[in-house]
Specification:
The structure is a homohexamer. Chain A is an alpha/beta fold. Helix content of chain A is 34%, strand content 27%.
Chain lengths: 255, 255, 255, 255, 255, 255
């Protein structure tokens, strides 16, 4: 099966090679967990490692913010734009939706202009203000996502989590049903510190790693690390050490 | 009693042979748990193993998506359609409901045309947008399900769970009361990884396995595996190892 | 005190002989826990063991469904109807309420016609759609229940639980206050399997067993079994083994 | 201080002698916990042991129900009515409220007629349907309770708990602030059985027992028993054995 | 810094000397925890120990109730009123708010008349019925509290807690932000009994004791006692003994 | 990268040097946790240690309150105002928002007048009353924050937490997504006392300390202390000692 590599070590491995071609991939998490960084890295690696130009669709931040944030990781987004490999478009959910429904809209033009194969949509949460009705929202998201697929794009769609630490109790998960894969980024409190956890919950049409991995945002971007060990209830955000781990720590490590 | 075998190893065993003839069987779960795969496998096995043609009623995805997803498991849905053994119909809850109430509607025609004995309805959740009133919803579901039974069909009806991991706190369970069996698919966090659990909660008119089984989506479809062991609170999504298991792990396994 | 035996072994024992004469007895539980089966068994045993004819009032299922479900347990409901010992009436809450308020209504006629002493009302939940106001609902239920008592009937009233597994967080318990006894049927997860628990929460005017019993639906109907042992928090649906039990299992059983 | 003895062994002891004279005493609990029984016992003992005639104000049940229920405990309410020591009045919150505000209302007349010193109001929950506004409700309850005090009555006011087992999460506790004492009756699951717990949460103007006592409804009425031991979280309804108790049970009792 | 001593042993110590001069001090708790007693004691000690006359502003109870309740602790409020050291004013939030905004209102007059330095407002919760809007409420409370400060008063403001035992899940905490100190009174279940806990959560402009203290209402009023020991989760109302405490109790105490 | 030091020992270290230049930094916590103190310290240290004049924008408290509170820590705010290094402006969210949108508004003038580089906005919560719509709120906050950045200011924005102790269940976290860093101040119950915890949840464009630190408000202001140790679930407000810690305490410390 054709894989679209994120170029993020550890993540491609969890995805058994990468996202699937022309699919919509949701990256959901609380503020600061690194959703946008993951998305930018997906775009940057696409251009520089796999020669796949990319678009960034933003509904809140100005393009300058992306240039600035990317720079921190040594990613020269301005240079890539000038080289015709990247476009950062600030727009609104309404406009981008309408635009994609037209035969030759602005987004479509840009896709053709730079030969884009990847897109980052930051963030899907802004679509939620278009309607209060879950069915309508789902229908809007579904048609938006299909538009992206029709353009031949593989997308990373960020979504903001309702809960800061751990899972929300009553999530509106309309988006979860219309995407092809679902990545969760979570804050987790372990040993009196906050770590970050990444989980691939689903990957339509493929197997994937099931374990909950620790990750960090380093100077080079997202870095997926080893699996959490000896903890129960990680996705709750407030896990407990397992009994076996507790004994080991009390009687083996401490001695 | 007449059994309609799913042909899914392990599942038929849990159902003591299969679903009951001309019953409505709910398969409920979060996105990515494999509801649709289970339903497609039920249809595919029906046609290829038991010579029972089948219908797929879809309210969101295009037929192509089913062909594509089925292909991954080596199921040639296009071929089966051409052989007159399968029909994938994209419609809406409103239309399909009205259609089934007519004497010779489109669905009824197709049932007769291919001699369908099985149907996958994907998903029942879309009926929820027809009304805000739980009583109305229940009445709609009840009459829809009875229409399927009148056509002589044994159905798998998928339904989307409100919670991602574990049980929802405040589920609207109108559907649960009008179906004949209720299968739950759940994400469960065990040993720092997400596994999938399957439970047969009810099977009207028959005994069934009561244990919570692990299952996986393999290259050949759903594969029901062994029972979970040494865990408490599995259906919460965030189980704990039992004390006995903790001791065993700490003093026996680790040594 | 006059007791109306259910004829269900174990249950009559928990009730110290049976329900009290001309009382309303609520049986509440999630789908598939066996509420209707318990009610049918109450009616069937009434007719065949105690020579007390019975009525079944249904607001959703057709009489055929009861004949069919009863047959599984070897209960010949059609035969009993023909013998003038049983009537299965499909109606609505509105109609049955109005009917019972009339001097010589249909239900009353049937009571007299077959000399009915017992009634199964399946289910009380359907009354909830008559009003959104808890006070009104309570008043409606109260007058309905009194009508049944005036007819000299001892009733089993089923009610659907809001939660699938364990207790609901915010139950509307208007019904609980107007009935004479309250039986809870619950799904409980123990040792990685789902069992069924039965609890007599109240029995107006009599003592009763206070322990939480396991029960099963066998080929002969409901069978109340032994008390749960070594578990804490059973009614939560997700109990934990007690520490003593954990030690015993770890060091005694396992060795 | 003047004490109004309930005559219920164990309870008077918890109250350091009884309720205080001319106070309003709330007894709150789930259905079947014994609120009304406690109230009837308060009235019955008042008449027979302390020569204090009493009234029962009921908003739902007919007087006959009280005669009937009382009889079970050997309390001859009919006889007491005939002897002019007891009045059971069925009315509504609206009427009783208006009545008590008039100079010489029906309730007031009855108080004088039989020289009543005690009253059972069953239940205060019915006042909640008079208004949706918590401030209004509180004001209504406050004035109703003061009317009772002006008549020189010591009252037991029952109130229905929102939760069946354990505490409700979001209680409307307007009543709690306007009464002089607050007794909680709760179902508690201990050792796989449901027991009943009684707690005196407050007793305005006096000290009181602070421990959580077990109680039962025996053939002679409410019987307050010993304190619960070795449990944590009793008022949650789902307590856990303490660790010390767990060890004792595992290594001492079992051996 | 100028301290306004409560004269309550243990509490002044927790406050490192007392409240701060001309500040607003919130005392929040469930019914029966002793909020009003603490406030009356603050007023009584002010008059008798520190020669600071005081006012009591009540929105629900009649002055007689305060005289009566105070008497229990041996505090002669009537005498103090006659001596011109105390005024108990029954009013409404609306009136007292308007009154304090006038140049020479009734409350202001009384402050001057008796030279009041302290005030008990019982309770702040009644202001909540003036508006449904949290911002409005906050603005009302803020201006009311400032009026008290302008009069040179140090105030104790009682507030009713939403939860009976432990913390409320969703508190409206507008009051918490506009006051200078926040004292919490809580019911806590420990060793199968209900104890009372006191916590100084904040004290603007000063350090304070951070530990959770047990307290009792004795014949002499509030008495702050020692810190709770060996418990986790006290403020939840349902604490657990710590593991160390459990071991100690199991193997040291019991032997 | 340019860092704006807070001058708060421990905090700058957690931030790997300080906030980033011209960023918006959210400090969120319950009443009394020290949000405003942290903000005042940021302003005071800016002026006195780094020669960066500062503004304080207040929506509720009068400037006098800040002078007064600052004095407690030995910070002479009045003196700094007279020296033209500080401005404390009392305004409303509406006015300050409109003001910042004008070319030469009052805030802008003051920034230029004193050469302000830092601003404390106390508190952002007041913006929430401008709209009920989360999208609108977010848009308002976003444009307000951008106005501050355009003025070249590095800001500390306080925000009030919904929960007193631990995390709120259903936070409206619009603010969290539009700021550059997020500091949480929390009350935590440990060893029967309430301590304060500080966590840097995110710091856009930089790494930061991930551990949960204890802090205190001393006579010199906020003092960040050591990491919490041996506790699980700190951010819940009600942590548990880890098993290893429990054993250590039981068998090592106690002996």
């Amino acid at each position: 099966m054709d894989r679209v590599k994120t170029g993020i070590k550890g993540l491609d491995e969890m995805l058994l090679g990468g996202f699937l071609l022309e699919t919509a991939n949701l990256v959901e998490g609380a503020p600061g967990t690194g959703k946008t960084t993951l998305g930018m890295q997906f775009i940057y690696n696409g251009i520089t490692q796999f020669n796949e130009p990319g678009l960034i669709l933003t509904f809140e931040e100005f393009p300058q913010q992306y240039y600035h944030d990317a720079k921190r990781f040594g990613w020269d987004f301005r240079g890539l734009e000038q080289a015709g490999k990247l476009r950062v478009i600030m727009t609104s959910p309404e406009v981008s939706k309408a635009d994609l429904e037209r035969v030759e809209g602005r987004i479509s033009s840009m896709v053709h202009e730079i030969g884009a194969r990847r897109i980052l949509v930051d963030s899907l949460s802004h679509f939620e203000r278009l309607t209060d009705d879950p069915s309508d929202l789902r229908s809007i998201l579904f048609s938006f996502i299909n538009s992206l697929k029709r353009e031949g794009l593989t997308s990373v769609l960020t979504r903001e989590s309702n809960a800061l630490i751990g899972e929300s109790d009553s999530a509106e998960e309309e988006a979860a049903f219309v995407v092809d894969s679902y990545l969760m980024l979570r804050y987790v409190e372990i040993e009196s510190a906050i770590r970050k956890a990444l989980l691939v919950l689903k990957l339509r049409g493929s197997d994937h790693a099931k374990d909950i991995r620790q990750f960090a945002i380093t100077a080079a971007g997202i870095e997926v690390q080893s699996k959490f060990e000896g903890q129960e209830g990680i996705m709750s955000g407030s896990p407990r050490r397992t009994m076996a781990e507790g004994f080991r720590e009390a009687f083996v490590k401490r001695k």
